[in-house]
Description:
It is a multi-pass membrane protein. By secondary structure, the chain is an alpha+beta fold. About 50% of the residues lie in helices and about 15% in strands.
Amino acid sequence: MITKQFIIGGMSCAACSSAVEKVTRKLVSVTESSVNLTTGIMTITFDEQALSDEEIIRKVERAGFRAKLHIDKSKEEKKEEEAVMEDEVHKTRTHLIINIILAIPLLYISMGHMVPFPMPLPAVLDMHHSPLNFALAQLILTTVILFNGRKFYLAGFKSLFRGHPNMDSLVAIGTGSAYLYSLVMTFLIRTDGTAVHNLYYESAAIVVTLVMVGKYMEGRSKNKTKDAIRKLMELAPDTACVLRDGEQTEVPVEQVGRGELILIRPGDKVPLDGTITEGRTTVDESMLTGESIPVEKEAGSEVIGGSVNYQGAVTVEVTRVGADTTLARIVKMMEDAQGRKAPISKLADTVAGYFVPAVMCIAFVAAVVWALLGHDVAFVLTIFVSVLVIACPCALGLATPTAIMVGTGLGAGNGILIKSGEALEIAHKADAVVLDKTGTITEGKPAVMNIISHDKDEDLLLQIAASCEQASEHPLGRAIVDESKKRGLPLLKAEEFQSVTGQGIEAVIGGDTYYIGNRKLCESLGIGLGAYGKAAEAIASKGQTPMFVVQKPGRPEDGAEEASAPAGIISVADPVKETSRDAVARMKELGLQVYMLTGDNRLTAEYIGGKVGVDHVVAEVLPQDKANVVEKLQNEGRRVMMVGDGINDAPALVQADVGVAIGSGSDIAIDSGDMVLMKSDLNDVYKAIRLSNATIRNIKQNLFWAFFYNSCGIPLAAGALYAINGTLLNPVFAGLAMSLSSVTVVGNALRLRRLKL
C-alpha cells in the first residue's frame, strides 16, 4: 500500500469534495480517500500494483473535476503558484466590481418604483410608458452580470450532468430558472402588457453578485489561513555567501551543496542548516522555536536555516540542504497537517454528500405543493429559486478545515508543530500523559551538581579531574570537563591516560597518579570510602552519580604509595529542566494523570519523579518495552499522550493516541510523533492541549452556525412564514444569507489567531 496526494481542481463546496471521495473510494485496492476542500488536496491510500496514478486521475476527471499528482515544489515554484492564485483573485475582483456597478442601475430600474419615496425614471425606461424597453434594459444588464459569473453555470451544470450536483448547481438552476422565465415574459410583453410584472432579472443578477462577493471574501480569508506557511517560507534567504577556493561567492541557496562552507555576517539570515566551524555569535531562533532569548553559538554549535545572526561573523559547514533542512521539513509538516482531515469533519462531509440532492428535492416539492394550492407561476418560481439559493453546503465544508489551518498556523507560531488535524482533535481528549525522563523531563546531558572534598580546594579538585578526563569520551567525564571550562579553569597536562572498563579512568598529572570513577574502582584499588561513604549514599539517593577522585603519590611504574581514602567526590547527574515541575503541575490542572517512564534504577527514578511531581513512576523499563507500557494504559481505557525525544521512544510515540516529540531529540522520534515541540519545553504540552481545546470548540461553533443557517433558511425559503403571516422570502435575501453563512464560518475560524496560549 502507498499513500499519495493529488491536487483536485474545480471544487466549490463540500458536496464536491464528498463526490471526489465517493468515486475514488470505489476504485480497486483503495483503502482510504480523503479530500480537503480548503487546500484542494486529496490524500489516497491504494495498492500501486493494482491501480495507477493515471487511472485515479481519469476517474476524478470523469466525475467532472481536475486532478494532478501533488509534487513537492521548490520555493520559486510555490511563489509562481501563489502569483497565479493572486492573479485569479484579481480577475475575480475585477468581475465583481463590474457586477456591483451594473447591479446599482439594475436595482434602480427594476425596484425603484417600489420604494416609499419617488425615484423617477426617464419615460423611455418607465415600465408604464415603455414596458419593453424597461424589460430590455434589465435583460442587457443581467446578461453581462451572469456572463461575469459564468463560472457558476459552467461548473454547476457540468457537475449536475455528471451526477454530482454541488452548490454551483443550486445557484445555476435557481438563477438560470429566474433568468429564463424573465426572458419568456419579455417576449410576451408585445402581446400581453401584464407580463412586465413577472420579471425576475434582478433576482438572478443580484443573487449571482452576492454569491460572488461571498466567494471572493471566502477566497481572501482562505489565503489568510495560509499566512503561517508563507511567513515560514520567507524566513530563509534566497542566496548564501559560499567560501570556494578562498573566495567569497554569492550564489542561490539551491546551488549550495552539503559540506560546503558559508560565511554568515552579523545581521544576516542563516540560509541553511549547518555547524559553526569558526567564530562566536548569538542567534535569534524565535521565528522557528518561539524562544525570544537569543542563543549563544560557538564552534561546534548547530545553526538552523531561517534564524538571524546577531553579533559575530561565523563560518558554517552546511549539513542539510533542500527538503532536508529544518525549515523545509517544518513547512512540509504544516502542509501535510493542513491537507489532512480531522475525524470530526467526516460528519460534515457525509451530510454535504446528501445535502445538495436533498435541497433540490425540497425545492421541487415545495414548488409543486404551492402550485397545487393554486398560486401563479411567479410565486412558485420565487419559492423554487429561494430554496435553491439559500442552501449553503459551503459553510459545512469550510467549518473544519479553516479552523484546522488556523490552529496549526497558531501552533507553529508558538513553536508547536502539528502534523495532522487528527492529532489536533485527539489531544484535548487525552487523560494520561507519559513522559520519558531523559531529555524530556531532564536536560538529557549530564552536568556537575556538587563537589565535596575535606582537604582540597573545590576548584583544584575539579581542575585535576577535568584534566584527567579531557581525553575521555564518556558523558560523565565530558560533564566534568564542561564544568571546568565554565569556571575558566585551565586544563593541566595529563599523561598515561587509561580507561578502566566499567569503573573509570587513570592518568598521571605532575608526577602523581589519579583515579576517577565509581565505587567499584575504589574497591578494586583496595581503598576504603571513609567519611565519603555516607556522602556518596546521600548523592545516590538524589538520583546523582558520585564520581570518586583518588590520588596516589608517584607514577604507577614507580610503585606509587597507597592512598588511604579518596581526595573527594564530584557528583554528576542529568539535571531536571527548570520548566519541568511547573509543566507537570499545569498538566495535572487539566485533569491529566502524569506518568514518568525511564530505564533508570528505581531509586533515581523515584527521586526525579518526586522532584517534578508526577503521579506515577515506571522505572527500569527496557527501550523495547516502552510501547508496551503505553499499550497497557490504553487497554485500561485511557487516551494516552506520549512525550519523548530518543530513538528508543519512537515505538511508544507511534503506539500512543498522540505522540509528542521533543524538537531537540532524534530525527526518528520527530518523524514518529504527531506533534513536535520546537522549544523542547514541557510547558508546550499544556499549550498544545489548550490549542486543541480551542480549535475543536471553534469547529463545533462553525458546524452549529452552518447547520443553523440551513435549518432556519430552507423552511423560510420554502414558504413556511407565508403560510403563517403572508411573508415570502425574496431570492435576493436568500443569496445574501447564503453568502453570509460562509463568511461567518471563515471569520469565526480566523478569530483563533488571536488566542494567547
